[in-house]
Amino acid sequence: MSFQIFTKILEEEIPYNGPELRPHWIAEHTKKYGSAVVAFQGPTDVQTDALVDLEDREAKTFIRAKSMIHFLGEFFQGDLNWAIGQQRLFTVIVQETLCEMGMPGEFKRDGDDLFWQSSSKSGWRKLSVSIVTASPVSSLIHFGINLDPTDAPIAAAGLKEMGLTDWSKFAGQVLQKFTRELNDQWKARTKVIPR
Question: What are phi and psi of 151, to 5 degrees?
Fold first, then answer.
């Protein structure tokens, strides 16, 4: 038996503005019910009043990019603490995948954020955004990684400038690795002899 999770790449371009981070958004777009993670790409424009992060709201920040790969997850097991742990694991998997693909420059993780520095040591730029929240029925994760960071309010990097040409192939690798990790976690729980 394995951890039951549905994953899918949504090929159509979908803008991300914040309200997508809600229960059953994935079910509405896939007609599948249960824990799931989907990936899609599209422009991002999350205004201050749509932000879930209280510190970001108080700072009156916003999120904007011409194009991002969005990973949206909804989980119907575990609590918010569990989901935060999965968010951090997801961030590590994205970083690991980029390195395995031989992307140029250097990557570093700070919590749930990824940063990139070109080989010319031109300074660290933000590559991703992420947030976790809870609904009355589930935990929700959004992880967005820039393809083209044009119009971002901060110094940002994008995967296109690193040479990424096939966003869906990259997203598929990330989803496959994340699913494998969840299944391994489930197996580790089920094979332990109780004391």
Answer: 80, 5
Residues 53 and 118: their CA atoms lie apart, in Å, by: 29
In this structure, are residues 181 and 37 in contact, taking their beta carbons and an 8 Å threshold? Answer: no
**pLDDT tens-digit readout, 152-164:** 999 999 999 999 9
Up-side HSE of residue 125: CA atoms within 13 Å toward CB? 23
DSSP label at residue 122: -
Give domain limits for the chain: 6-183
The CA radius of gyration of the chain, in Å to the nearest whole number, is 17
Residue with tokens 């019910």: 33
Contact of 12 with 189, CB cutoff 8 Å? no
Task: Give the Cβ contact number of residue 137 at 10 Å.
Answer: 9
Element (H, E) at 37: strand 36-46
Q: How confident is the model at residue 63 (pLDDT cuts 50, 70, 90)?
A: confident
21-37 per-position pLDDT tens digit: 999 999 999 999 999 99
pTM for this prediction: 0.93
DSSP 8-state symbol, 72: E
What class has domain 6-183? alpha beta
Q: Name the pLDDT band for 167 (thresholds 50, 70, 90).
A: very high
